[in-house]
């Protein structure tokens, strides 16, 4: 819709305040007349008049989000980090396999056991 708005602004040379695209970070501009507007910052992670103030969660995310060049540097200079990551995922895979097989074992065996048990107890009862 922002591309559509741009087109309308170009074609009509509109004075709509939203044509100045005041809403940042994918905020939705709502025109409120000739020179008034409102930014709908819903789900942008920002708030404020122009959706420029980051929410706390956005701040935390951008702090935690590693920059690609740093990640590249770490991966090329600290091979042992990769080793640990690989070993951890290897461990995780092994654990998951164990959990899945033991769980499916648990899922499969009780009905068999119960059927056996029920059959036997029914037999014992009917005797
Ligand atoms: C929001 O954007 C408008 C237009 O660019 C600007 O005049 C106004 O100062 C901005 N407000 C804030 C709080 O940054
Ligand atoms: C990861 O595991 C390999 C063998 O699977 C081992 O040789 C290596 O030392 C381990 N690396 C770390 C950091 O534990």
Spans where pLDDT lies below 50 across 5 or more residues = 106-127
Q: Main β-sheet: number of strands, strand sense, barrel status?
A: 2 strands, antiparallel
CATH structural architecture of the largest domain: Ribbon
Distance between the termini: 78 Å
Put simply, the count of helices is 4
Radius of gyration equals 30 Å
Q: What is the CATH class designation of the largest domain?
A: Mainly Beta
The average pLDDT value, as a whole number, equals: 72
Succession of helices and strands: HEEEEHHH
Which structural class is indicated by helix and strand composition? mainly alpha
Small-molecule components bound: 2-acetamido-2-deoxy-beta-D-glucopyranose
> Which fold name corresponds to the CATH topology of the largest domain?
Laminin
Number of DSSP strand runs: 4
Number of domains: 2
Strand content: 5-15%
Shape category: elongated
CATH homologous superfamily title of the largest domain: Laminin
Tell me roughly what share of residues is in helical segments: 55-70%
Query: Widest sheet: strand order?
Result: 1-2
């Amino acid at each position: 819709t922002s591309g559509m708005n741009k087109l309308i602004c170009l074609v009509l040379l509109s004075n709509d305040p939203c044509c100045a695209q005041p809403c940042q970070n994918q905020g939705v501009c709502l025109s409120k007349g000739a020179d008034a507007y409102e930014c709908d910052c819903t789900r942008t992670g920002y708030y404020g008049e122009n959706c420029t103030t980051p929410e706390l969660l956005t701040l935390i995310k951008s702090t935690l989000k590693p920059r690609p060049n740093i990640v590249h540097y770490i991966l090329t200079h600290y091979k042992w980090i990769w080793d640990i990551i690989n070993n951890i995922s290897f461990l995780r895979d092994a654990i998951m396999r164990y959990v899945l097989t033991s769980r499916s074992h648990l899922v499969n065996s009780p009905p068999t056991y119960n059927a056996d048990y029920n059959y036997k107890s029914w037999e014992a009862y009917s005797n």
